[in-house]
Amino acid sequence: MGSIAAIQYEGSMSDAFDIKSGVKQGCVLAPTLFSIFFSLLLKHAFGKSTEGVYMHTRSDGNLYNIVRLRAKTKIRKTTIRDMLFADDAAVTSHRVQDLQRLMDRFSQPCEDFGLTISLKQTNVLGQDVNTPPVITIDNYQLEVVHEFSYLGSTIPDNLSLDTELDKRIGKAATTLGRLTSHV
């Protein structure tokens, strides 16, 4: 890499050493390399796993006609178990025991690949459940939350979109107000 570094700790400086791997901070290759790295981690973690949320799709007609999804043919079943953005991940499943299995499968490869899961920032959201789900990573019980923010959207445990719609309408009204004051 052509870089040399030293570590300063409690007023002492280590000897200089060559940096032999990685990319410099801000390098345009960093996001792509991390995506490749994380894709390999996920493939290693989930392999042929069948747990996740199933979504039925059909792309040969009216997209919003839900009756067409009841057909026996031309339906595609897709499993969604993870949603990724930068270095954030959301893991999904229909059942608590499946989610625990996914977290077990995810946490070990993270450790093997040198990544640390921030347990304090990792939450569980159960939707339409009577008892809060208990999910653990290495015997640490994850916090159960009543709403979850992901990529700027708020997902509540009661399946209501009211709060999210109110927030978006408020943002749109603010933006419209700014536009009209400048015209």
Automatic annotation (TrEMBL):
Pfam families: RVT_1. Coiled coil: none annotated. InterPro entries: DNA/RNA_pol_sf (IPR043502), RT_dom (IPR000477). It comes from the Eukaryota. Residues 1-155 form the Reverse transcriptase domain. This is Reverse transcriptase domain-containing protein. It comes from Stylophora pistillata.
